Amino acid sequence: MAELRILGAGIAGLCMATELAARGIDFALVDKEPSPGPHACSWWAGGMLAPWCEGESAEEPVVRLGAQSIGWWQQHTGLVETQGSLVVALGRDLKELDRFARRTENFERLDAAQIDALEPDLAGRFRAALYFPQEAHLSPRAALETLSGNLAAKGIAVQPQAEAATTIDCRGLSARDALTDLRGVKGEMLILRCPDVQLSRPVRLLHPRIPLYIVPRGDGVYMLGATMIEAGERGRITARSLLEMLSAAYALHPAFGEAEVLEIGVDARPAFPDNLPRIRRRSDTIYANGLYRHGFLLAPALARMVADMLETGARPEVMDEDYA
After folding, report:
1. Rounded to two decimals, what is the model's pTM?
2. Considering the chain, what is the average pLDDT of its residues?
3. Closest to 184 measured CA to CA, from 272, 276, 264, 54
4. Which string of DSSP letters, residue by residue, matches 31-49?
5. Which residues of 186-200 are buried (b: 16+ CB within 10 A; e: fewer)?
6. Beta strands of 19-134 (E only): which ranges?
7. Backbone angles phi, psi at 284, to 5 degrees
8. Backbone phi, psi, residue 28, to 5°
């Protein structure tokens, strides 16, 4: 029997495994699926490493801990695109841009000419924007496959089952059987091919009802998302969500009206009541969960905290007092 096992090979489990392996800690990695794929919530992620933008609605730890993720992902995958993030609003919604600015930091205000220089395909479409130059993005699927491949190269393959003295539970929403306050927040997204639009960085279009982000994947392919609906449903997009996302994309650039829809993705993010992650220890099980919409942004920090706890006994910043 192994001393340690990780349950779940999604974003949390793969980051956990990568961090432990880098420190020479032995473990078994357990998941019913042998490799990353559409069965995992992280397969449908946007891949934006945008801690300062997330500060618009997230608590301080998300910004501070998320800022550390960019270097971690570059170190372990080499896939990080460091082009920053752009936040725009249509003329009638410029108050939304001011509200966003009041809630965030580490940005530059751009006028129309500066927007045109940064993203030529948006020329003449927006009068003002916020540019977050330190932010980044990556392709989630390529990142998951790279982590999985790196582990396999070290002889660490995903196993369907393994017994161990200590378990790190990274099962996401499936851990609701043990974490009764964990809830699902449904997200819907689209992958489009639109070669007539060339964007170099993630762009957020602010709107009081249907905010949108669009992330370039290369070769005219974009990820478009994403809704946040209080529901654990994981398999159905609504007509309203589909219409609103496509309408927002068209408002960003009319060429998206001719885009080819390649994929429609739906899943539910695991979240605690305050939308912050938790590490909980109950007997011989450590639960690392609640990444909400910040999987790629916070999974590295969560993995480091658990690894520190195992190595030195250090108490994680996000350890839940009620369950310690």
Report:
1. 0.95
2. 94
3. 272
4. -SSSS--TTSGGGG---EE
5. bbbbbbbebeebebe
6. 28-30, 48-49, 85-89, 108-111, 128-132
7. -100, 15
8. -110, 140
